[in-house]
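Researcher: Here's my situation. A collaborator sent me these components and asked whether they could plausibly form a single complex. I don't have experimental data yet, so a predicted model of the whole assembly would be a useful starting point for our discussion.
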Amino acid sequence: MRHGIVLSSRVRLARNYEDIPFDAAQRPEYAAMCVNRTTTALKSAKLGEGFDLLRLREMSEVSRTAMAESRLISRDLLRTPDTAAVLIRVDDALTIMMNEDDHLRIQAIRPELDLTGAAQACFQVDDALSRQAVFAFDEQLGYLTACPTNTGTGMRASLLMHLPMLTRGKQMGDVGQLVAKVGLNIRGVYGEGSEALGNIYQISNQVTLGRTEQELISAVTAVGVQLCDMETALRDKAMKDGRVALEDVVFRAWGTLLHARLMPLNEFYQHWSNIRLGAALGLLKLPLTLADALLDQVQDAHLRVYADEPLEGVQLDECRATRIRELIRLGGE
Amino acid sequence: MAENENSFMLCEECQVNEACYTISVMMGGQVTQRHLCADCMAKMNMSIATGNVKHLLSAILTAITGAEAPAADEPREDVICERCQTTLSQFTKSGRLGCPACYKAFQEQLTPMLQQIHGRVQHAGRKPLNTEAAQRQRFRHEELMRQMEQAVAVEDFETAAMLRDQLRALAEKEGED
């Protein structure tokens, strides 16, 4: 059941080279040093195979934004396109972002609930690089980062979770308190401010210093599992006590997505949440992987790349509606 | 952060609402307090939540440095990181440190801040796997730096310039690799 709730697990490590100022992203000579050093170290460690080096300045704005929409790179990396670069292994969504807030952000994403797997992928890169280069590290404070909120392990472990029933049951306030109590943080992934469009939330560790990576991963995983149990209990209850009402919501959303000709993004999230719930409960024959892929594929930059045109406003909504039908058709029923 | 027991106090951030939270910052054995209303406290929590910590750090640092701010006519000496020339006030404003050496330079201000953010100030967890090769390179860099500083100290600028060029070449070689 958990796979119906946790979309993906992500771990990222912040690392800096000892002898380069933190703001390398603003200084081309240092930025180039970071990129060259990392690329060379990765090659020397015989880990370079399968990685592609992409410099953001050599990519179109729309294709680098699409990478951020897929979470392969951070939105923050887009702020310094002249100096930022990324080493990426597409097969397993492993990326090394260079010249972001820190010199390096090593990031791995795994489907479903697998923070340990994501962390191991990051550690492999971390070890390979730290054999070749010297990272800023202090015995007392751990890894030294540009911002004191990342000092220590430099690690952020996060889960992307779909929590429609907890949201509908107005329990997210309680969830927020529970999460904060154990030093974690929860926020909506899409939308402004406190919105959580699509009922998609990210939970992650807040503190990075004084706990081991394993402790942090266990804490995030434990809370993730607890939220899964709470969400599952509500889903089971709805299936038992109000199945028709639940089916009605799911199939209305399904019908809209299959037949609408204009689909604004904000409206899409609402229907998406309902069809993903339906897919997770077995009400719809829609693979969860396809539901999750939809989420990336209908974002603005993805649509612009797909259409190869600078779509705006209603053109985006039209293209989104078409793309949704097409992807659903391609993915079977 | 405890509920404020004072009868009524204005929020120091917005100066509008009643302050009902107190943030205490321990520094050098002295406690500095900041009083905030629920809205500003929420904003601060939101700053942490969204990763936008600049606001939070500024607020905490203002509390620390503000408490010891001298009279306006008395010029106040800023703490500076000798390696990257970042000043404490720059850090206070941006929330970002300049280089790894800033952690030592601003230790007095940073330790209570790290304690506030993380609750602990002793690292537990992974360590880098420095190889001998990496260490040798670092020692070489440090040795050149040391020699250059010595040369400058005795006003032997010719030697200093030569060492500076060597350091540059070392950095460039790395850049080309």
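Model: Some features of this prediction you could bring to your collaborator: The first strand of chain A starts at residue 6 and ends at 15. The mean pLDDT of chain A is 94.
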